[in-house]
Design a protein that fits this description.
By secondary structure, the protein is α/β, with parallel strands linked by helices. It has six helices and seven strands, in the order βαββαβαβαβααβ.
């Protein structure tokens, strides 16, 4: 295994592979030599590394993930599982708006179902093979909003009534992911499986200029993350470079929470 291919011949699974950050993780893993299976609820090829095998599956439906597991069984047990599937609401003027007292239980529950329960399902379905093989790395994608509440002043320039609010279920669900990570780090650490969280800060992706300015002003590095800023940290947590790192949160936020 060369330094340039730290995951050579490894099998990596990425949920939410067609989402905003899914292709970032897929590209990093494939570039490090891994055989990558991407899972997404949407059908179609999407914009993924051509070396990635895409399977349709829904993290909110455990049976759906079990079907994916059975379809890829010939590839062997996974070495890496990246739990990326999630629901978020980006700051944009056209976003659906609700006063906080009008946020529905269904909307709150749908976010928790994907972000938290979906992570649990994927670990349940793909993790035991890693445990039984005695090795592997599970990387759950978190958020700085698991540790700090979003500041409404970042969004108050956006037109509309009621004002834009970051969904309360988003940070709550990501905080749950952090707790779940520690749970499995304790449970499966003795079997050689490491479980950690990678928590990005704000990632540049077409947000309006005023939001970018306001957010960047709160970051010591004075900018939002670029997608490639996240790839090195993912490879660190996925590979033997972090072989004694377990149950930790790696924040990639430019110092936002410093």
């Amino acid at each position: 295994m060369s330094d340039e291919q730290p995951l050579e011949n490894s099998l990596a699974i990425v949920t939410g592979a067609l989402g905003k950050l899914g292709p970032v993780w897929v590209s990093a893993l494939a570039g490090a030599g891994a055989r990558v299976v991407g899972i997404d609820v949407r059908a179609g090829d999407g914009e993924l590394d051509p070396a990635c095998r895409l399977e349709q599956g829904d993290v909110t439906d455990r049976a759906s993930l079990e079907e994916v597991r059975d379809r890829i069984a010939e590839l062997g047990p996974p070495d890496v599982l990246v739990n990326n599937a999630g629901i978020d609401q980006p700051p944009e003027a056209a976003a659906e708006r609700h006063a906080i007292e009008d946020v529905s239980s269904d909307a709150f529950g749908a976010t928790v179902d994907v972000n938290l329960t979906g992570t649990f399902h994927a670990i349940q379905v793909f993790g035991p093979a890693m445990r039984d093989a005695g090795r592997g790395s599970i990387v759950n994608i978190g958020s700085v909003y698991a540790s700090v509440a979003p500041d409404p002043r970042l969004y108050d320039h956006l037109p509309g009534d009621p004002p834009f609010l970051k969904p309360p279920a988003y940070g709550a669900s990501k905080a749950g992911v952090l707790s779940l990570t520690r749970y499995f780090a304790r449970l499966w650490g003795p079997y050689g499986v490491r479980v950690n969280v990678l928590s990005p800060g704000g990632v540049a992706g077409g947000q309006d200029e005023e939001f970018v300015r306001r957010y960047s002003a709160r970051v010591p590095m004075r900018r939002m993350a670029e997608p490639h800023d996240l790839q090195g940290p993912l490879l660190f947590l996925s590979s033997d470079a972090s072989r004694y790192v377990n149950g930790q949160e790696l924040r990639v936020d430019g110092g936002f929470l410093a």
